Amino acid sequence: MIDVRTAVRKAVEYVREFQDYLPQSDVRLEETEYVEPGLWLITLSFPGELPFITDRRAYKEFRIDADTGDVKAMKVRSLTSAK
Among 8, 16, 64, 74, which residue's Cβ finds the most Cβ atoms within 10 Å? Predict the structure, then answer.
């Protein structure tokens, strides 16, 4: 089984493979979570679509197979504010 550092590295490598479609600068690690059955959920954020708004980020969740390290999915991750 891969560890969390490897899972994060796999998600970042996946982003680099799609450099024509995803921003490459200011990529940030936001969340990591291991869930059964054997998936790492890795959330990365990117600069939002409005560059003059500095706190706006776009979030992507990557599902990484914990046994093989393969990226199984990339999804838009929407954040809800806790109240």
Answer: 64
Give how many domains the chain has, as a whole number.
1
- Identify whether 40 is part of a domain: yes
- Residue 82: inside a domain: no
Long-range CB pairs of 29-34 (<8 Å, 24+ gap) are 30/59, 32/4, 32/7, 32/8, 34/4, 34/66
Question: What's the rounded Cα separation, in Å, for the pair 62 and 65?
Answer: 10
Tell me the pLDDT band of 5, cut-offs 50, 70 and 90.
very high
Any domain includes 81: no
- The SS3 call for residue 10 is helix
pLDDT tens for 14-70 read 988 888 877 778 889 999 999 988 999 999 998 876 555 556 888 899 999 999 999
